[in-house]
UniProtKB/TrEMBL annotation:
It holds the Pfam family PTS-HPr. Keywords: Sugar transport, Transport. The keyword Transport applies. This is PTS sugar transporter. InterPro entries: HPr-like (IPR000032), HPr-like_sf (IPR035895). Gene3D superfamilies: HPr-like (3.30.1340.10). The lineage of its organism: Bacteria, Bacillati, Bacillota, Bacilli, Bacillales. Residues 2-71 form the HPr domain. It comes from Paenibacillus ferrarius.
Amino acid sequence: MSGLGTRTIVEINQAANQFQSSIVLKVGKRFIDVKSILGLSITLLTHEVYRLDIHGPDEAEAKQAMSDLFKKHGLVLQED
């Protein structure tokens, strides 16, 4: 099991918290609020495929920012 570094988790969490939209990470049967640093720290692994569900007033901007960050850190997002 290969976890991500603290810096990556904090960067993703801080970016998510800049948006009003709800940002939920789906991996397997788990649903994690990306704004929860604890949830991220026990969920983000480099070998998983993730899906982001983003809903709210700034969802387009949030989706782009989160997608860019996941790619930057080598995390695979499932295409819609």
